[in-house]
C-alpha cells in the first residue's frame, strides 16, 4: 500500500501492530522494549512460581509492564541523545563545508586559540 | 502526502513534527501497556471461579488505582507541555506569508519583498495532468525556502477555515476578524500537501494547500525577489 521506496532509500519494514495500533517494526525502541518485557515477564513469573509454588500470572504481567516501561525509557533517552549528537554533527559538517578556508572556519578559530 | 489507507502520521518535515512523532510513540507505548493490563484484568474476571459477592472495601487497591493513573498522566503531560512551549519559541522568522481563507480557495500574500498576491484553487479533475493528484493539486503552489524560519499569518475573509499541513505539524484556524500566527522551519525540500481542516461549506473538501519547499538559493532567484 505504501509507495515503493526510491533506489538507495532504506525499505520500510512490514508493520506488525500489537493490539492493532502499536507498530513495533517502525517505532524506534518498541520491538526492543517488548522483547525484553516479554523476557522479564517470563523470568519474573517463572521465578516467583519456583520460589512460592503459587499462582504467578499477576507477577508475570506486572513484570512485563515494568520491564517494558524501563527498557522503553532507557532506550528512548539514548535515542534522543543520539539524535541530538547527529544533529550537532550535521550542523558542524555543514559549517565546515561552508566556511572552510575563510576567517569563519571553526577549525582555524580552534587552532588559533590553542596556539595562543 | 498520505498514501492510500494510511492511518499513521506522515514523515516529519520540521523539527516540531519530529518531536510530535516522538511524543506520539511515547503516548502509544503507555496506552499499549494500559490496554494490556486491562485485557489481563478482563480475562481474569471472565475466567475466575471465585464468586464472593460480599466484598465491601479494598483500601489498598483503591489507593493504587488512584495514584497510578495520576503518575501516568504526569508522564504523558510533561513531554506534551515541553512540545507545546517549543512551538511558541521566538525564532526571528526570515519570511512572513499571509494566508487568507475564502470559500473555497486560499489567497497567499508575499509582502516582505514585494507585492506578490495570488489565489490557490484546487485543480478540477478535468484539468488534471497525468501524475497530478486528484483533490490535492492546486493551480498555484506556495513556494517557500527550506531551512529558514517562516511565519504564516492566517486569517479568513468569510467563514472559519483551517490551514493544515500534516507533515510540518501545522494546523491553524483561519478565523474572520482575527490574525493567527504559526511559524515553522522545513528541513527538506519537496512538495507537501494539506487540506482545509474546518468545515466551511459545500466545497470544504476541495480547497487543498500545497507547499513547494525549495533550497534558499533557488528561492532567492524566484519571482518573489524579482518583483
TrEMBL record, chain B:
Residues annotated as domain Cytochrome oxidase subunit II copper A binding: 92-225
Cytochrome oxidase subunit II transmembrane region profile domain mapped to chain residues: 1-91
CDD domains: CcO_II_C
Any GO CC annotation of this UniProt entry: mitochondrial inner membrane
Subcellular location: Mitochondrion inner membrane
Keywords: Copper, Electron transport, Magnesium, Membrane, Metal-binding, Mitochondrion, Mitochondrion inner membrane, Respiratory chain, Translocase, Transmembrane, Transmembrane helix, Transport
Cofactor comment text: Binds a copper A center.
Membrane-spanning parts: 27-46, 66-85
Pfam family, one: COX2_TM
The protein's role, per its UniProt record: Component of the cytochrome c oxidase, the last enzyme in the mitochondrial electron transport chain which drives oxidative phosphorylation. The respiratory chain contains 3 multisubunit complexes succinate dehydrogenase (complex II, CII), ubiquinol-cytochrome c oxidoreductase (cytochrome b-c1 complex, complex III, CIII) and cytochrome c oxidase (complex IV, CIV), that cooperate to transfer electrons derived from NADH and succinate to molecular oxygen, creating an electrochemical gradient over the inner membrane that drives transmembrane transport and the ATP synthase.
Entry's family note: Belongs to the cytochrome c oxidase subunit 2 family.
Name of the protein: Cytochrome c oxidase subunit 2
UniProt lineage: Eukaryota, Metazoa, Chordata, Craniata, Vertebrata
Gene: COX2
Amino acid at each position: 500500500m505504501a509507495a515503493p521506496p526510491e533506489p538507495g532509500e532504506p525499505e520500510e519494514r512490514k508493520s506488525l501492530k500489537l493490539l492493532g495500533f502499536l507498530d513495533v517494526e517502525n517505532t524506534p525502541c518498541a520491538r526492543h522494549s517488548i522483547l525484553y518485557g516479554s523476557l522479564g515477564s517470563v523470568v519474573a513469573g517463572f521465578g516467583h512460581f519456583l520460589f512460592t509454588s503459587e499462582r504467578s500470572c499477576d507477577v508475570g504481567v506486572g513484570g512485563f509492564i515494568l520491564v517494558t516501561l524501563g527498557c522503553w525509557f532507557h532506550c528512548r533517552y539514548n535515542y534522543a541523545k543520539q539524535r541530538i549528537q547527529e544533529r550537532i554533527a550535521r550542523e558542524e559538517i555543514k559549517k565546515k563545508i561552508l566556511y572552510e578556508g575563510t576567517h569563519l572556519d571553526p577549525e582555524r578559530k580552534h587552532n588559533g586559540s590553542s596556539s595562543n | 502526502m498520505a498514501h492510500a489507507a494510511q492511518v499513521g502520521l506522515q514523515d516529519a518535515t520540521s523539527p516540531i513534527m519530529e518531536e510530535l512523532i516522538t511524543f506520539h510513540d511515547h503516548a502509544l507505548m503507555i496506552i499499549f501497556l494500559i490496554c494490556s493490563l486491562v485485557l489481563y484484568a478482563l480475562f481474569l474476571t471472565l475466567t475466575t471461579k471465585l464468586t464472593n459477592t460480599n466484598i465491601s472495601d479494598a483500601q489498598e487497591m483503591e489507593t493504587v488505582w488512584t495514584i497510578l493513573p495520576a503518575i501516568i498522566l504526569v508522564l504523558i503531560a510533561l513531554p506534551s507541555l515541553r512540545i507545546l512551549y517549543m512551538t511558541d519559541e521566538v525564532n526571528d522568522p526570515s519570511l512572513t506569508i499571509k494566508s487568507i481563507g475564502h470559500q473555497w480557495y486560499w489567497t497567499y500574500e508575499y509582502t516582505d519583498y514585494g507585492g506578490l498576491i495570488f489565489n490557490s484553487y484546487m485543480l478540477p479533475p478535468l484539468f488534471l495532468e497525468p501524475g497530478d493528484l486528484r483533490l490535492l493539486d492546486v493551480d498555484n503552489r506556495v513556494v517557500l525556502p527550506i531551512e529558514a524560519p517562516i511565519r504564516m499569518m492566517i486569517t479568513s475573509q468569510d467563514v472559519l477555515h483551517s490551514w493544515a499541513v500534516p507533515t510540518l505539524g501545522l494546523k491553524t484556524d483561519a478565523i474572520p476578524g482575527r490574525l493567527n500566527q504559526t511559524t515553522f522551519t522545513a528541513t527538506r525540500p519537496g512538495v507537501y500537501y494539506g487540506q482545509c481542516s474546518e468545515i466551511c461549506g459545500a466545497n470544504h473538501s476541495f480547497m487543498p494547500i500545497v507547499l513547494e519547499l525549495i533550497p534558499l538559493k533557488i528561492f532567492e532567484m524566484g519571482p518573489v525577489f524579482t518583483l
